[in-house]
Amino acid sequence: MNRMQVCTKLFSSLKLMTQSKVHLTRNMCATATAGTEKYQFQTLKLSTPSPFVVHVEFNRPDRMNAFNRQLWTEIKDCFDQLHNDPDCRVVVLSGGTSKHFTAGIDLFDMMKLGQELGAIDEVGRRGRLLEGTIKLYQDCISALENCYKPVIVAVHSACIGAGLNLITAADIRYSTRDAWFSLKEVDIGLAADVGALQRLPRVVGNHSWVRELAFTARKFSSDEAYTQGLVSRLFDTREALLDGAVKLATEIAAKSPIAVQGTKKNLVFSGDHSVQEGLDHIRQINMLNLQSEDFLTAIMASQSKETPVFAKL
Ligand SMILES: CCC/C=C/C=C/C(=O)SCCNC(=O)CCNC(=O)[C@H](O)C(C)(C)COP(=O)(O)OP(=O)(O)OC[C@H]1O[C@@H](n2cnc3c(N)ncnc32)[C@H](O)[C@@H]1OP(=O)(O)O
Predict the structure, then answer these.
(1) Of all protein residues, whose CA lies closest to atom 26 belonging to ligand 1?
(2) Are residues 197 and 288 in the same domain?
(3) Which residue segment(s) compose the domain that 220 sits in?
(4) pTM for the complete prediction?
(5) What reaction does this enzyme carry out catalytically (predicted)?
(6) Assuming Cys at both sites, which of 86, 127, 152, 297 could form a disulfide with 172, CB separation 3.0 to 4.6 Å?
(7) In a domain? residue 126
């Protein structure tokens, strides 16, 4: 057999394998996505605007979506669950009905923490309480990054302090033109400690700009955020913003979940590793993924110009 014949044979066996698998896959996907009723949160509201897309909305409009202890922990629980949910392939995170995306940490909650600390009369024990609290809050924000499903944040109006830390752990940031941002921590006597100092320089690559913002807490506009690469698209209204975010999510959700989630895993890993370590990591991922039915399904669909259908993951 010459080279050409080998290729033709391989291609037809791939085709046969994939045709039966596509059939199987279609059956597996027949029930498409289940609803979000299984998610029971008070400070978050979940819905499914299109198949495999979950919309998470902050739901503390009377407190401008300020992060109290409950919101912090529900964010972590929510993203940990979405990570393992086969009915979710992409997440859109927005500020819901609140006037602002978020006012940052709940200042009344911080006062309660102050009272708890006041009741402990020894510095080492007070330190332990603070260490546990900060670690919990750090983990809540890292949950967006640790979730294999791409997270698109849709920011409107104010995005302050903890909110700015949070959006740097997302994959894609969109905002309205009226959005504004502030790395506010120094103004409340804190060094930002839930990820912005680590992630923001990596997101935008402009260390001088990040330091200026971190040292001054100055408010900056969506235009500036766009110019620096913090947000990748601006919209005139909140409706257009959500529409744009859900459209993008829907496009991503139609791709192979094996490919998309492997891509996120490797992008996150490569963010703080050398090029060689990143290449070693993706090689290990693709050793497995290139054997998955998604690979064949996607290749065959691109050859036949049909829309591929992928099984739940
Ligand atoms: C271990 C810690 C790790 C994490 C650290 C995180 C740190 C941070 O997040 S620092 C940032 C803290 N946030 C702020 O400093 C923002 C303070 N708020 C404002 O600047 C304004 O309120 C805001 C621009 C958000 C909104 O202004 P607007 O004029 O539109 O509304 P207001 O009338 O000011 O507020 C409406 C009601 O919301 C309450 N509220 C606002 N922010 C907070 C908050 N951060 N925590 C709790 N509650 C907040 C405000 O008190 C009003 O309530 P009410 O008077 O009862 O209507």
Answers:
(1) 103
(2) no
(3) 38-254
(4) 0.92
(5) (3E,5Z,8Z,11Z,14Z)-eicosapentaenoyl-CoA = (2E,4E,8Z,11Z,14Z)-eicosapentaenoyl-CoA; (3E,5Z)-octadienoyl-CoA = (2E,4E)-octadienoyl-CoA
(6) 152
(7) yes
My answer on whether 142 and 278 are in the same domain is no
3-state secondary structure 32-56: CCCCCCCCCCCCEEEEEEECCEEEE
**Three-class secondary structure of residue 233 per DSSP:** strand
β-partners of residue 92 are 55, 152
Compute the distance between CA of residue 151 and CA of residue 74 in angstroms, rounded to an integer.
Answer: 16
State the closest ligand 1 atom to the C-alpha of 188, by its place in the atom list counted from 1: 10
CATH number at residue 159: 3.90.226.10
Task: Give mean pLDDT, residues 134-140.
Answer: 98
Please check whether residues 93 and 170 belong to one and the same domain.
Answer: yes
Q: Sheet containing 180-182: which strands, arranged edge to edge?
A: 158-160, 180-182, 220-221
Is there a single domain that holds both residue 49 and residue 194?
Answer: yes
Handedness of CA 233, 237, 241, 243 (dihedral sign): negative
**Per-residue confidence (pLDDT) for residue 32, from 0 to 100:** 53
Does the predicted interface ipTM exceed a cut of 0.90? yes
Q: Is the pLDDT of residue 42 over 50?
A: yes
Q: How far apart are CA 133 and CA 131, in angstroms?
A: 6
Distance CA 301, CA 28 (A): 18
pLDDT in tens, 79-129: 999 999 999 999 999 999 999 999 999 999 999 999 999 999 999 999 999
In the predicted structure, residue 17 carries a pLDDT above the cut 70: no
End-to-end CA distance of the chain: 39
Q: Which mutation among 43, 62, 64, 68 tests ligand 1's pocket best, with the greatest number of atoms within 8 A of CB?
A: 64
Q: What is the pLDDT of residues 277-307, one digit of tens each?
A: 999 999 999 999 999 999 999 999 999 999 9
Q: Of ligand 1's atoms, which has the minimum distance to the CA of residue 103?
A: 25
Whether 115 and 202 map to the same domain: the answer is yes
Mean pLDDT of the chain: 92
